[in-house]
Amino acid sequence: MSDLFVELKAPNGHKYKQPRGLFINNEFVASQSGETITSINPSDESEIASVYAAGPEDVDKAVAAARKAFKDPSWRDMDTNARSDLLYKFAQLIEQHRETLATIETWDNGKPYQVSLNDDLGEVINTIKYYAGYANKIHGQVIDTSPAKLAYTVREPLGVCGQIIPWNFPLAMAAWKLGPALCTGNTVVLKAAEQTPLSILYLASLVKEAGFPPGVINIINGEGRKAGAALASHLDVDKIAFTGSTATGKEIMKMAAVNMKNITLETGGKSPLLVFDDAELDQAVKWSHVGIMYNQGQVCTATSRILVQEGIYDKFVEAFKEHVSKASVVGDPFKDDTFQGPQVTKTQFERVLSYIEAGKSDGAKLIAGGEAFKDVGGKGFFIAPTIFTDVKDNMKIYREEVFGPFVVISSFKTEEEAIERANDTTYGLGAALFTQDITKAHRVARLIEAGMVWINSSNDSDIRVPFGGVKQSGIGRELGEAGLEAYTNRKAIHVNLGTRL
Ligand code: NAI
Ligand code: MG
Predict the structure, then answer these.
(1) Is residue 304 part of a domain?
(2) Between β-strands 272-275 and 430-434, what pairing exists: parallel, antiparallel or unpaired?
(3) Are residues 290 and 198 both part of a single domain?
(4) Do residues 167 and 139 lie in contact, with contact meaning Cβ atoms separated by under 8 Å?
(5) What is the CA(40)–ligand 2 centre distance, in A?
(6) Less CB within 10 Å around the terminal CB: N or C of the chain?
(7) How far away, in angstroms, is 364 Cα from ligand 1 center?
(8) How far apart are CA 285 and CA 319, in angstroms?
(9) What residues pack around ion ligand 2 (CB closer than 5 A)?
(10) Nearest C-alpha neighbor of 199 from the set 108, 271, 293, 277
């Protein structure tokens, strides 16, 4: 075996062949510089494997492959039923390799295996199937003007799409971006996050078998500031889709300006969750837990700011603390009863600890956690689920995205105050609210500045429903039918049927 593959045995005993190359033109290749990235198991800090990291010269190669494929009749003129079949076949292959993909995801990212297997892989498969179904339903309109004109629109792919994904849901983020781009006839260069480089390469190994022509899907690893920046600023890339931090999103916007790329950005959040006095307490508590503690708190839409009306504040805080202590079982992600694994990297682990220090020094009240969790073999990036109460609106921990099992709770008096404080943020991704009064629920939902509002739940997003933010949480929408907008242009064609000069 060349050094482009390595045989690995995961902590759950699962053996598989891990690709290490850059996937360009349906082949794994080494990076031209020979540079690599080492992937770390966040549960015990051991090295798993190293993979090739793209530099600008490799990005050029991948973009050229995607451009050639975009123009090639084998893809450009493919019957849309065939394109649908191709995506469906891809989804079936992913299903066949589900255990391997879930194993890699858990090993590299640290999320519980049952979550990888059921939630993440379930979402990947459903997303690809969902967009497979759209491949033969992309059409324009005939627009009536006058008998002297036939005006119609066709929906065209944008061209070569650069896609930059984060490490919190590596495969799911890839599926959200590949599905709509491919069903509309684009070609893709996708860059994975350097923190989680492994699962995406295994996914790439299924592309050729599914039958995609060479160059339609290119998948690379590489540092954000090298490979990511090369993609975002590339003159032959037509679109850039990004999920990650708001700061990097702004950098990408600037780089994309170089040739006025179409952009979709899905960035950070500090999403509020409002609990009104009339809420069903038990349900508010359970959803609030899922809303912030799921996926180690590493979710862009995590409802990380809980605002509770004063009449039930004390009861809520007590019940929430009790529920977190039982439900948030921290441990080895390969164990079945684990709810919370390690943070993805040492950097993220230290970042969460620094916010714990900020909360303490700013005078918020720590009622749970507040330290590293050391009971999983003494190693790894585990954090004890952390709750701060009596948090003031000007505190750093109330205003900034932490991205960990870390929540702040504060109280409010009136509905008006709740809305004002929910909106007092530069972000606008998700929001949740709990009340049994349906009139109030819909009224408040309309007044909250967010791309998504959950009434009496939190974070139960669905791939059939648009996902995205307002304010500094992003631009554009992914998922659902709305997700197709991000990958097509509407070309207008005017046919003169009688206007003579
Ligand atoms: P990041 O936004 O820097 O990284 C996300 C992706 O962007 C990665 O693929 C990375 O390689 C790429 N990237 C980084 N710099 C780039 C550049 N200059 N040009 C092009 N691509 C670039 O996020 P990071 O540093 O991993 O995490 C920091 C914080 O960002 C987290 O603590 C969290 O608050 C937030 N974040 C939000 C995510 C979300 O789902 N919205 C996902 C990941 C992080
Ligand atoms: Mg890792």
Answers:
(1) yes
(2) parallel
(3) no
(4) no
(5) 4
(6) C
(7) 28
(8) 7
(9) 39-40, 108
(10) 108
Same domain, 250 and 396: no
Ligand 1 atom with minimal separation from the 232 CA: 20
Residues 326 and 220 in one domain: no
**Does some domain include residue 173?**
yes
Q: Whose CA is nearest to atom 13 of ligand 1?
A: 224
Supply 38's token pair. Answer: 């080492």
Nearest protein Cα to ligand 1, atom 38: 244
pTM for the whole thing? 0.98
- For residue 262, which amino acid is it? N
- Residues 6+ away with beta carbon under 8 Å from 390: 364, 365, 410
Profile the chain (501 residues) by mean pLDDT over runs of 10 residues.
Answer: 92 98 98 98 98 98 99 98 98 98 98 98 98 98 97 98 98 98 99 98 98 98 98 98 98 98 97 98 98 98 98 98 98 98 98 98 98 94 98 98 98 98 98 98 98 98 98 98 98 98 97
Q: Kindly name the residue from 105, 123, 194, 266 that is annotated as catalytic.
A: 266
The separation between the first and the last C-alpha atoms of the chain, rounded to the nearest angstrom, is: 71
Per the structure, the complete domain to which residue 231 belongs is given by 21-267+474-490
CA dist., res. 466 & res. 463, Å (int): 7
Q: Which residues contact 1 (CB under 8 A, 6 or more apart)?
A: 7, 17
